[in-house]
């Protein structure tokens, strides 16, 4: 056992003893409720709550606050401590003469630890140093912690401020996000911004008149993207089901059913590798609008994300690492093959698979036997083009082999009307003029089935029910998917997808 583990175990035993002592004294260390009337931020933002020197306590608004004890400065019969609630921290002043000898000397001084949840009732005043503080008239233990909170300590050494015991190990922070949120307040800000980002997108689409819907997560036939699914089994129906990899095909069924615009914030699942840009469980929003095409959708995406940037940052400019990303529209639009030729010098448009393999070999791209034309082009694009696109850019007009659900290009042979928005070196959005020709769609699915038979496990399967829905008629439609996690990384200046997920997938601890 390490020294750290030994210390933690010892602390656990000490706190268990304190817990029992509280109970022996007749205290309830885990009461059922506590009425909270004010939060720290509200008190700090409202100086009218502060008691003036010439005011009687009875004339001052009383406050009731609750949260964790984060620091204590005991000075005999009185103590200052910091209380952390959901909105920040505020200082509390507590005196033996006000709360009683046993409450102060035993319950507070002896049996209360850093991290314990407590409730305070009293009034607000300002200390001699000008700090807004809650003057405690009542003290209540609300939850006795049995493990020490890893609170960092700042120490002055050789004229420098050094921090000790910081909860800074990234992997441990992801595994124990609850502690991360307690001791690293900036993490709360990240998730607050993520929530505001989603709400801004929802409000924008609602204002456009689109309907938010829900579609199945458990699906008998997975589809809507090229990915390997998670598989499960339904006992009552005795059938295999899949966690959805996308919700596209169900949302298009709703367009068939007569809706002009539907969207869904969905949890999707793809049985693939983990990286700082990939988590097996992720969030995206998909939107489908009848009678529109991918040109219209490009303008919509520009306006939507520009709106989000302004809502979160008050500007179209967002600082991301060393870059300033400007979401002001319009954004550049570059055809995919043109972008590849600009970066590699190779014109791949119209090339057969042997020519593509030769080009990939020249570019040191590793290929697998199962790779078709679309996969080879995608690998070249991902290696040579995508990482260089920092400012938001629309890459348009993809090869038909890469896009089995997109409409054929109205002018260019072998291409489809599709775009991806690339920003900060990664795709954040994908959109099509949706394929609504059921005969063409069946042929595309059958080609995907052939690729799957050749070993491509990410190729799509044939969805007969969806094909039947198309045969009942779907109007011209523009479809869009935006990766919420990746967009949140940009909007919150986060380096890893795990920084914007409360509980990212992790390998088991040894």
UniProtKB/TrEMBL annotation:
Binds 3 Mg(2+) ions per subunit. The keyword Metal-binding applies. Residues 191-508 form the Aminoacyl-transfer RNA synthetases class-II family profile domain. InterPro entries: Aa-tRNA-synt_II, aa-tRNA-synth_II, aa-tRNA-synth_II/BPL/LPL, Lys-tRNA-ligase_II, Lys-tRNA-ligase_II_N, Lys-tRNA-synth_II_C, NA-bd_OB-fold, NA-bd_OB_tRNA. It catalyses: tRNA(Lys) + L-lysine + ATP = L-lysyl-tRNA(Lys) + AMP + diphosphate. HAMAP family: Lys_tRNA_synth_class2. NCBIfam families: lysS_bact, PRK00484.1. This is Lysine--tRNA ligase. It comes from Fodinibius salinus.
């Amino acid at each position: 056992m390490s020294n750290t583990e030994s210390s933690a175990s010892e602390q656990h035993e000490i706190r268990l003893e304190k817990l029992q002592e509280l109970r022996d004294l007749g205290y309830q260390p885990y009461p059922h409720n506590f009425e909270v009337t004010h939060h720290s931020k509200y008190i700090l933002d409202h100086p009218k709550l502060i008691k003036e020197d010439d005011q009687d306590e009875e004339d001052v608004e009383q406050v009731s606050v609750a949260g964790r004890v984060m620091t204590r400065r005991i000075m005999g019969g009185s103590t200052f401590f910091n209380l952390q609630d959901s909105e920040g921290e505020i200082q509390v002043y507590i005196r033996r003469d006000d709360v009683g000898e046993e409450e102060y000397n035993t319950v507070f001084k002896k049996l209360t630890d850093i991290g314990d949840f407590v409730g305070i009732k009293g009034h607000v005043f300002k200390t001699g140093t000008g700090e807004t503080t809650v003057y405690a008239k009542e003290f209540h233990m609300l939850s006795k912690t049995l493990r020490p909170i890893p609170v960092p300590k700042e120490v002055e050494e050789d004229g420098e401020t050094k921090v000790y015991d910081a909860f800074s190990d990234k992997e441990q922070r992801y595994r124990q996000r609850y502690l991360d949120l307690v001791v690293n307040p900036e993490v709360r800000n990240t998730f607050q911004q993520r929530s505001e980002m989603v709400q801004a997108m929802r409000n924008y689409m609602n204002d456009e008149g689109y309907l938010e819907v829900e579609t199945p997560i458990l699906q008998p036939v997975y589809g809507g993207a090229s990915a390997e699914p998670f598989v499960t089994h339904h006992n009552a129906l005795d059938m295999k089901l899949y966690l959805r990899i996308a919700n596209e095909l169900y949302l298009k069924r709703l367009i068939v059913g007569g809706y002009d615009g539907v969207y869904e914030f969905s949890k999707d699942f793809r049985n693939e590798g983990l990286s700082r840009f990939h988590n097996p469980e992720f969030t995206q929003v998909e939107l489908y609008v009848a009678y529109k095409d991918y040109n219209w959708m490009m303008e919509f995406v520009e306006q939507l994300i520009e709106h989000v940037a302004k809502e979160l940052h008050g500007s179209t400019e967002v600082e991301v690492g060393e870059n300033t990303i400007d979401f002001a529209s319009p954004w550049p639009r570059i055809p995919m093959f043109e972008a590849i030729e600009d970066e590699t010098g190779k014109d791949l448009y119209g090339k057969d698979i042997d020519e593509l393999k030769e080009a990939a070999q020249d570019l040191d791209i590793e290929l697998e036997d199962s790779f078709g034309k679309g996969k080879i082009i995608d690998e070249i694009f991902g290696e040579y083009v995508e990482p260089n696109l920092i400012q938001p850019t629309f890459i348009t007009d993809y090869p038909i082999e890469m896009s089995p659900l997109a409409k054929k290009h109205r002018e260019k042979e072998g291409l489809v009307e599709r775009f991806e928005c690339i920003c900060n070196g990664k795709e954040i959005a994908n959109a099509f003029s949706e394929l609504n020709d059921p005969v063409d769609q069946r042929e595309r699915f059958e080609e995907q089935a052939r690729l799957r038979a050749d070993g491509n496990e990410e190729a799509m399967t044939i969805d007969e029910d969806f094909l039947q829905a198309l045969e009942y008629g779907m109007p011209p439609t523009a479809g869009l998917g935006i990766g919420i996690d990746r967009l949140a990384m940009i909007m919150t200046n986060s380096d890893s997808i795990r920084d914007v997920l409360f509980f990212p997938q992790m390998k088991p601890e040894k």
